[in-house]
Amino acid sequence: MLAAGAVAGAAVAGAVLVPTPASASAGSVHLYKIYYNSPGVDQRTNASLNAEYVQIANTTSKAANLKGWTLTDASKHKYSFTNYTLGAHKTVTIHTGKGRNTAANRYQGRSAYVWNNDKDTATLRSAKGAKVDSCSYNSTRVAYKMC
User: Fold this and answer.
1) CB distance 120 to 77 below 8 Å
2) Is 91 within the bounds of a domain?
3) Does the chain have fewer CB atoms within 10 Å around its N or its C terminus?
4) Per-residue confidence at 137, pLDDT binned at 50, 70, 90?
């Protein structure tokens, strides 16, 4: 719980440092957080769409090339990474709406929500189509899921 609070505090400060789990000393590239119910009334504004997002963490000591990797939901909405490298011990946030891509933030460019507010499953696949990670949620009591 304390580590999650520290990560949330770092996110507010603008830089997310991802702790390496003790059980996976080599680290991994994995789904970290799904913020599936953006704050306020769902009116499909770009700000609201961008408050819906998925974070992917790289807890390895080396940068990971995500070119060709995909992120999908249970309804098969797909986001594909183009030329993109996720730095060592960094996260990237994939927002639903439109925006300007940076190293820390990517945008799907959609005008409708992707992540259901009650239940869904995020799946991360490598460029070869192998499942790297998945994360499911089934709750309306909270707005996000730590994976």
Assistant:
1) no
2) yes
3) N
4) very high
